[in-house]
Specification:
The chain is built from 14 helices and nine strands. The chain starts with 7 loop residues before the first helix and ends in a 6-residue tail after the last helix.
Amino acid sequence: MSQLKNDRYLRALQCLPVDYTPVWIMRQAGRYLPEYRQLRLTAGSFMNLCQTPELACEVTLQPLKRFDLDAAIIFSDILTIPDAMGLGLHFETGEGPKFIKPIINVTDIKQLPIPDPEQSLKYVMDAIRLTRKELDGKVPLIGFSGSPWTLATYMIEGGSSKSFTKIKKMMYSNPKALHLLLEKLANSVALYLNAQIKAGAQSIMIFDTWGGVLSHQSYQEFSLYYMQMIISELIRGTKSADMLSYVPVTLFTKGGGLWLEPIRQTGCDAIGVDWTVDLNKIKSKGQIAIQGNLDPSVLYADKSTIESNVEAVLTEYGYHNGHIFNLGHGILQDIPVEHVQHFIHAVHQQSKRFHCD
């Protein structure tokens, strides 16, 4: 593999000096791009887009052809593991993901297989291998998975949810069953992410999208515990000067601002934070990397407002190493493309003064 031409993202993840703050965007390969929408139509379905390595590679590279981003993230979906377990993932227009066979009881859980990532999920590994080749060292490639708790919410609810009543009912009425599911998912995710690393992912991110719906105690028991289990099983390599021998891990819990210290103690390299977190209040800046945290809706604003909000986030983080600029969650699908361009340029230009020797 080629040496990295831009290693700012990997340097920032290890809290090393950079010349400007690196930036990438959650869901940067997606519906706000007209070329993505066209390719999605050509593919015929979202699942076909995900499961065809050549198409997934093309989607991954689309935003890098437009923008000066500091990292690529492989195009896939967080629900690939439940789909490989046989739950029948499909997407309904306007309703999001649905499962044909949701988890109802402990018998369903016991029957779930642990997928072999080089068999039922081989299309993801092939997409990573192909994308690394096509990137040719331009920027690092991020691999990812949903957290066990987040995957379990979809599997038990049967799709998206606003109240999470079914999974919380299991959590309180039959916690042993839920722990059995979460442990099986943690083992599956660890295998999946290690396969991504072997295929060429240079950084790993775990998306705990729904951890924030839990109580303080429940979050640590049903979400954080299993993410820590995954981290302990990842083959991350060793830190070195060339940035290529170590695979950093970022944990992102949406709504997880109350648990930054417990998250830090998992052994992750970076904590993703949403826009509700005051970066001034993070005491461990410079000791662990922080990713975030502009409100995605700011990108609806005019250029001067985008610039002032970028400046505010940079100032909040201050003169510390270890900041990766990102949105506090995924980019919204109707954001103007030119606003994204201006946002990325603003981060690069305005952040230089925070990295002077």
